[in-house]
Amino acid sequence: MAQQQGLLTITGYVGGQPTQFNREGMPHASSFRLASTRHYFDGRTQQWKDLPTTWITVKAYRGLSESICQSFKKGEPVIVTGVLAAESWVDQNGKQQSKLVMEANAAGHDLSYGVSTFRKLAKKNDSGQQDAQPGQALGRDPYVQAAQQRGETSVNAMGGQSSGVDEQGGSQAGTDSNAAEPLREEFGGDGF
């Protein structure tokens, strides 16, 4: 039987530094408050106006939790996608309480307001140790290695000379498109 889950996406600002918490037998978890303010254009005054700010608690688990705690800072614009869930508890007066929380399955900075740099988290191997430190490459791109071994270079967008591809993979701006031809031949042509 299929389950229905309506994904919700909310844009807003991180209201406070994300905090980690643990529940017995559960993976890493974190939460933060997200402030989202809708705006509308008032035709009478010809100005944008704010509606009241909506605050929601966002919870994340496992790797997403770790990434959020390392990436998000108070006041930063973010986009969060997830599902709404109701949390219930009995307060100190014995009254049943509940609130809606968002259980995130994806989150990131809102690039409408700035730029961001992505850094892949280091994976842990079977012995529980990291294969590489954060920020270090876990492997080298075979196309880059082949180009570097042949000594291929090109002029980059800044006017300097470079190998045409960086160590993490991908072409640099200004790379000569003809430089890819020998790589196509060496690594199987059509799949390049």
UniProtKB/TrEMBL annotation:
The segments labelled Disordered in the record are 144-192
Q: Mind listing the UniProt keywords for this protein, alphabetically?
A: DNA-binding
The annotated regions of Basic and acidic residues compositional bias extend over: 182-192
Annotated Polar residues bias: 146-178
Q: Which organism is it from?
A: Bifidobacterium adolescentis
Under the heading InterPro entries, the entry gives:
NA-bd_OB-fold, Primosome_PriB/ssb
Q: A Gene Ontology molecular-function term?
A: single-stranded DNA binding
Q: What is this protein called?
A: Single-stranded DNA-binding protein
Q: What domain of life?
A: Bacteria
